[in-house]
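Support request, please re-run this one:
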Amino acid sequence: MEARHVFVKGRFGFGVFYRAEDFIVYITIVSALVREMSLTVLAFCPMFNHIHFLFKDIEPRKMRSFIQRMAIIFVKEYNKEYDRRGTLFQKPFGCSVKRAVKIIMGSVAYVFNNPVAGKLCGTAKEYRWNLLAYLESANPFSKPLRKEKARNQMRAALKKVDYFHSVGKPLSYAALRDIFKCLDKEEQARMTDYILTKYNFLSAEWLETLYGSYGKMITAIDSNAGSEFDIEDEYGDHSCYRSMLRLVMKSGYKGRELNFEKLDEEEARCLFRRIMTATKASPACVNKFLHIENNQ
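Re-run finished. Output below.
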């Protein structure tokens, strides 16, 4: 058994995932490609400005093809949504080969524990976007969904998700707006869980083979943060990005306006100073958040 730990980083370490919609669009794109290309994914974790994958027995050429196609599809959709141009991801991507089962298990723990190390949650399965909780439950972050008791608007939205998934298509930003437009807050939480359960591409079968059961895997992941010496990771406290996001949203930057590359120099400089004053973020982290190549 062989595994490859792939690390994809935002250009200059810039932020990629600002909204739930960014994560959902990305995850459904990855899911569609994993399904089409018959890939086996042991672990996955998208963070604010980078993504981790752990593939089982993937050929280098197939891995490069996946990364290239993923980037092309997501960047096209992302740029359309945020009215921007250019790439999002840094080249080349990082890759490290793992062969011993114990080392592979250490990589599984490392990938899933990225948000714990980044101070975003207490345990790996508390982080929605690594999909780990969805191996155990269809609604880990919302109340159980009962379709027969759902409102007509919710049932119609569920059918749209079912259709896209049945034909192997990811969900675009436009599709998400259509799906969520008539749902209340509680229904939106249920819908997010429904989408992520539907599009979950983690290999439950192979993870169970490695660990014996889901419970044993969670115990192993929680008791060992894992280690990775062959990948240049984005270490540090990622909770600062959440603090910055809350601040800019209160200042009126929401939805499609979260494209800071469109700010003129003076507006970017003012926003940089406001964030520095109100948060404990470092200048380097603020630059990454605002997509500033040099400190202004």
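The first strand starts at residue 3 and ends at 9. Residues 239-290 form one domain.
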